[in-house]
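Document type: protein sequence-to-structure record

Subject area: structural biology

Format: plain text, a pair of labelled lines:
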Amino acid sequence: MTETFFVDGNGARIPARGFGTFQLRGDVCRTAVRAAIETGYRHIDTAAMYGNEAEVGDAIRSSGIARNELFVTTKVWTDDIAEEDLLRSARESLKRLQMEQADLLLIHWPNRTIPLESSIRGLCRARKEGLAKYIGVSNFPTALLERAIRLAAGHGEKLAANQCEYHPRLDQSKVIAACRTHRMAFTSYSPLGRGDLVQHETIRGIAERLRRKPSQVILRWHLQQGVASIPRSSTPAHIAENFDIGGFELPEADMRAISALHAPNGRMVVPSFAPDWD
């Protein structure tokens, strides 16, 4: 029996072990998503910008797993988050995925040139119109997150999640705390960082002592914080390793040692249109 872990976000019950699909295309994407589902992943993450929603949908349909057993997240790109554009983008995503509804629809990035009021109004409409079971945001720092939460409340809706870059090199304690205050889930993308973290002596030392892979130690660190993560891989062996983070626990001293690795220059994803980070 596979251990199942969840994070909760204003009614959404999100599998904490998710599979990311950024930069996976074509048959590589189909094969990887199928491998992830066969391994046991039930949370699949994609986005309009990834250009792979059709392949993700193909893999899900051919997996033999009932749609209601999967939690599928997709995102609306930053150029399309004005109200009507957001709704159009969401419908196009569902058409590519060949689904009637996403489990979670996110605004991929905020946009300084598009009023947040318009974006959140569109997001709330997407939920009311049944395009998404739950709604949320991605790459929202605390001040912007607070505004988005207030705006959604004005439409009678609650945001379920905020998806942001997070790994031991990057301190996201403020954003995570804000999510918890508002009973939102926090999902980590790029949870393994640049790849160099698995070579760090602190991580390797813990992994050797616990007889685990360094990547498993890092993903377990996320899990024990009550954070969902969406690592990506195209290699079935690595996909399986990343999923296998049950059956052991990091002592508190190890949790603290891993958290102490954060650095001022730890952020990797800094596009020109990024918001003002915490």
